[in-house]
Amino acid sequence: MKAVLALADGRIFKGKAFGATGETSGEVVFNTAMSGYQEVLTDPSYKGQMVTMTYTQIGNTGINPEDIESNQLYLSGFIVREYLDCYSNYRATMSLDAYLKENGVVGIQGIDTRALTRHLRDKGAQNGIISTIDFDPESLVKKARAIPSMSGLDLATGVTCSAPYHWTQGLWDLQTGYPEVDKRDLKYKVVAYDFGIKLNILRCLVSAGCDVTVVPATFPAESALAMNPDGIFLSNGPGDPEPMKEVIENIKKFVGKKPIFGICLGHQLLGLALGGRTIKLKFGNHGSNLPVMDIATKKVEITAQNHGFSVDILSLSNVAGLAHENLNDQTVEGMAHKTLPIFSVQHHPEASPGPHDSHYLFNRFVEMMEKHKA
Ligand SMILES: NC(=O)CC[C@H](N)C(=O)O
């Protein structure tokens, strides 16, 4: 079946349908990870976006019940060069095509994803539409132009959990799978704010020794402080952090009271809560192969990233300093408070998908809580 991708600036790509059929729209971004499409599909931070993979063959490891970052697919469309229906993986239970169909995600395959990526890199990420029912370029471009811009959209409060819950599962192991960690090994009480939290963040926190209670995005700081946690964690999530005023005000109430660690959207919200500002990048960073330097140790780590916004570190010059830097585009990759036990990173130390170079950051959070306790 035919499918067409139209971008808001008028560029058209003709391909073939895969996954669900129909029409879908969102901000089109490119992801440079060579594997891990299932984690990309289930990452809540992609809500409102359509993802094109730069790796050319997608589908060959199928879908398994374990490599999920949430219980749902949040992205609005999936774009690949060549879809492979014949999958091979000892854990796989179904094909990618069947998975997309089951979850109602519209896909397009057989387009020149290199040309699309170069276009997005040159012109910037922009809205687009995939259709298997309307093939008229003029009508499609008109529809793509009518989609609201990602800037100004609070999407995170729409994907958060509805009530607090406790998490005890640790990191995956080849022999045992996902272990349930003994409560006696969890020494640090952490309240984790869910703005669209990836499950591997929870697993990393637990494996680092944290007793994690996950709370909804607007859970009052007073109630969180009443739990007497050792630290506060702020998660990743979709959309623009700037309109999330209630959440930002809430985060301010933890500053100076508890150690805080933020990842991605959590890092951006923390920047806003500390009085800084955030900006929208031209096309952002999405992938599992992005070099970052830890300024303190000068060590370079290869990281997983997925963001379109960034913290303007100069707007925080009296409060926090640059702690990590992206070596590709020099974007702010992390910050540390000048006097308080507060730090955050733009990239994803939990990886999933991606290398484990940045896992040490969860231990850094634990050390921070240990010091603060003492
Ligand atoms: N992964 C994330 O948390 C993404 C943060 C934010 N939505 C951005 O695009 O920058």
From TrEMBL:
It comes from the Bacteria. It catalyses: L-glutamine + H2O = L-glutamate + NH4(+); hydrogencarbonate + L-glutamine + 2 ATP + H2O = carbamoyl phosphate + L-glutamate + 2 ADP + phosphate + 2 H(+). Pathway: Amino-acid biosynthesis; L-arginine biosynthesis; carbamoyl phosphate from bicarbonate: step 1/1; Pyrimidine metabolism; UMP biosynthesis via de novo pathway; (S)-dihydroorotate from bicarbonate: step 1/3. Residues 1-131 form the Carbamoyl-phosphate synthase small subunit N-terminal domain. The keyword Protein transport does not apply. It is an enzyme of class 6 (ligase). Composed of two chains; the small (or glutamine) chain promotes the hydrolysis of glutamine to ammonia, which is used by the large (or ammonia) chain to synthesize carbamoyl phosphate. Tetramer of heterodimers (alpha,beta)4. This is Carbamoyl phosphate synthase small chain. CDD domains: GATase1_CPSase. Small subunit of the glutamine-dependent carbamoyl phosphate synthetase (CPSase). CPSase catalyzes the formation of carbamoyl phosphate from the ammonia moiety of glutamine, carbonate, and phosphate donated by ATP, constituting the first step of 2 biosynthetic pathways, one leading to arginine and/or urea and the other to pyrimidine nucleotides. The small subunit (glutamine amidotransferase) binds and cleaves glutamine to supply the large subunit with the substrate ammonia. Residues 1-188 are annotated as: CPSase. InterPro entries: Anth_synth/Amidotransfase, CarbamoylP_synth_ssu, CarbamoylP_synth_ssu_N, CPSase_GATase1, GATASE. The keyword Ligase applies. PROSITE patterns: GATASE_TYPE_1. Its EC number is 6.3.5.5. Keywords: Amino-acid biosynthesis, Arginine biosynthesis, ATP-binding, Glutamine amidotransferase, Ligase, Nucleotide-binding, Pyrimidine biosynthesis. Signal peptide: none annotated. GO terms for molecular function: carbamoyl-phosphate synthase (glutamine-hydrolyzing) activity. Belongs to the CarA family. L-glutamine binds at residues 45, 237, 239, 265, 268, 306, 308-309. It holds the Pfam family GATase. It comes from Geomonas oryzisoli. The active site is at 264 (nucleophile), 348, 350.
